[in-house]
Structures are given as structure tokens and as C-alpha cells.
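Z., the sequence and structure:
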Amino acid sequence: MNRTEQREQIFMLLFRVEFNRKSDMEEQCTLFFEEAETEISEKDQNYIRSKYEKIAERLPEIDRLINETAKGWDTQRMGKVELAIIRLAVYEIKFDESVPTGVAINEAVELAKAKKEIQEKDAEIDREGKIAGVFCKAYEKAVLLDPTEENVRIWAKCTRMTRDEMEDTVKESRELAEVFRTIADLMERFLPDRGTL
């Protein structure tokens, strides 16, 4: 694992600080290495853990430096991702003589760019998931409807619809029918030859 990859692992451990008590972080470190997507060698684990612990020891001092320098912001208002990146950079600039200042700054910028791309992808996945959820719920409820004359009469009676409300419902039902017709037309266009989209 190169230094950039190790730095990313340290960043991820620092990110966990915001969601766990200090007393839980030893266990969090162990879980972090056990749950890693790719196996991390013992040598790399030792380096990552050691550097994380050195940063964690100095967090109050690092946060003080950040708060003194940041204009109009403090560590309480910063995004958790950005805060973890800044803490790592400040530690490397102020307290880690093995990392040149220019390298620490460049690595922080690259890490921020990478995390921003991940956040944007996550936001897009989240947005798509919400859209799919709305369609699924609407479809599931629609297929449960049994629009017989008796059922529609019961619905109107039990909900005590006024004439105006019934007229609105007629209009909305026709609009919904058009929505489902459009969905059917689009779905036909997306049908793959075989398998899924």
C-alpha cells in the first residue's frame, strides 16, 4: 500500500471519530481493519493505526489551530468529511516532519476531490432510489385497486366526498390513467432483448 492509499485509510478512521466516543475508537479500529474491502497487510495496519493514534492524541490542539485560522467557520460547523481531511492535513503540516508541506496540501486536495466525487455518486444513487421507491409504491397501491362500481361507491360514501371532491377525483383519476399509460409506453421502449437493464 502506498502513502496515498494509507492516507485514505487514516482519513476513514478519522471520519469515524465524529460518530463514536473516544473510548470506542480502539474497537472501531479493529472493526475497520476486519471489515476492509481489500485486505490490509499487518505492516500497513500498524502504520495506519499508529498515525491515526498520533493524530487522535493531538485532536484538541489540531481543532484549536483550525478554529483560529478558519474564517467564519469552526470545527462544529464543518462537514464531517471535510473536517477529517483538514485534521489530517493540519497534523501532517504541523506535526509530521516526514511529510513535506506541499505534499500534505496536495494530498488533502486530491482526497477532497475523490470524496466529493463519491458524495456526488452517492447523492445520484440516493435520488434514483427515491424515484424508484415512489414508482414502486404507486404501482403496488394501484394494482391493489379493484375498481368495481360497488367499490367506487363505497369509497365515495365512506370518505364523504362532496360533489366538488368527486369531480376533482374524476379529473385526477383520468390524469393518473394517463400517467400509467405513459409509464407503460416508456417501459416498452426500455424492454431489453433479454435480461435486465
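The CA atoms of residues 67 and 74 lie 5 Å apart. The two ends are 36 Å apart (CA to CA).

Let me know what you think.
H.
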